[in-house]
Amino acid sequence: MRLRTAAAVLVALAAWIGVCGTASAAKAPVKHVITVVFENKNYEETFDPEGDAPYFAKRLPKKGVTLENYYATGHLSLDNYISMVSGQAPNIVTQADCQTFAEFAPAVPTTDGQFIGQGCVHPTAVKTVADQLSEEGLSWRGYMQDMDTPCRHPAVGAVDDTQDAEVGDQYATRHNPFMYFHSIIDRQGFCERHVVDFKELKGDFRHKRTTPAYSFVTPDLCHDGHDAPCVDGKPGGLKQINRFLRHKVPKITHSNGFKDRGLLLLTFDEAEAEPGESGDATACCNEQPGPNTPNPGGLIPGPGGGRVGLVALSKCVKPGRVVEEPYNHYSLLRSTEDMFGLEHLGFAGQAGLKSFNHDLFAHGDC
Asked: Which residues of 186-202 are buried (b: 16+ CB within 10 A; e: fewer)?
């Protein structure tokens, strides 16, 4: 009698889980995920072996796995960063990089995980992967180069004075996605502990126990390739990205934290966004525009942010492999959530969207 009752309960529970969609894919074999995002480069330019970034184009792909058909989800910058951490689709204001640090409103939830509205700073009901990790007791940190002051952002309603680099201050709020969610910035101490200057990464990664489960790294406006030349006279562009990677990647991969089953993901926020021959607003993966803009391509008519590529480094992957399967920023969020056994936020939960974890880890050996 008890066995029958238990079986009935299990069947009912399984049916309930199926209806609610709360089950996630099996966890990946990694313990620490580090995402580093650069700026505004087409795949063909970045991965050109004769181009300005030979370390990225030739050296790193030999050490890891390349997702050659990895796509951004919109234009300009900010909408992509928000997609990567929350699964929220572009809106007209984030597509313009939120020149004013305005509230997102009216923030009406939909049945597909999106919120209807326009603006920048999302209400507490809109969650990020950082919120999910905190709720599960897992550590995370955002490392922002040149930010200096933890949790730095304009006052809500104020003009964003970090849109242009200055000598000695090349931080851009729009490249720091965590600042656009009240669930993070309204808790000042929490925010200051979690969103810090890039300088703190070295000390954190020195020990396994202090290395976050999830790290999001944004170089400044010079080292992320956005500016060329840079305001301080450095060349910028791909040359500066290449120099940053040659110096920083070995420091990360040789750290005790990374050796503890770390995964380093290197990608770009978007392809070229200007109209013309190099502009790219293509998409993949049946990307939907969402409820808040008719054209995710922004300045270019198109469904997405163009092809940018992604390189993954880890002892848990087989080096030198190239994956042809298409993925995008929503896939990145979905894959990260699956690595930690989390539910899927926003368009990361879109029906038919694939995680890239199988392609990364199927032939690796952890």
From this structure: eeeeebeebbbbbeebe
Residues in the chain: 366
**Residue 264: partners with Cβ closer than 8 Å, 6 or more residues away:** 34, 36, 64, 249, 252, 253, 258, 312, 313, 314
CA angle, 57 then 85 then 128, to 5°: 165
One-character DSSP codes across 251-284: HHHTSHHHHTTEEEEEEES-S--SSSTT------
Spacing of C-alpha 131 from chain mean position: 14
The set of residues, in sequence order, having a beta carbon less than 8 Å from that of 297 and lying 6+ positions away, is: 74, 75, 281, 303, 304, 305
Strand partners, 302: none
Residue with tokens 């940190």: 141
Strand order in the sheet with 65-67: 195-197, 140-144, 214-218, 32-38, 262-268, 310-313, 65-67, 321-323
Q: Which of 279, 284, 273 is nearest to 330 (CA)?
A: 284
Q: Position 7: which residue type?
A: A
> What is the Cα–Cα distance from 61 to 55, expressed in whole angstroms?
9
pTM of the model: 0.92
- Taking only the tens place, the pLDDT of each residue in 87-143 is 999 999 999 999 999 999 999 999 999 999 999 999 999 999 999 999 999 999 999
Contact 36, 247 (CB under 8 A): no
Radius of gyration of the chain (CA): 20
pLDDT digits (tens, 9 = 90+) for 272-323: 998 888 999 999 999 999 999 999 999 999 999 999 999 999 999 999 999 9
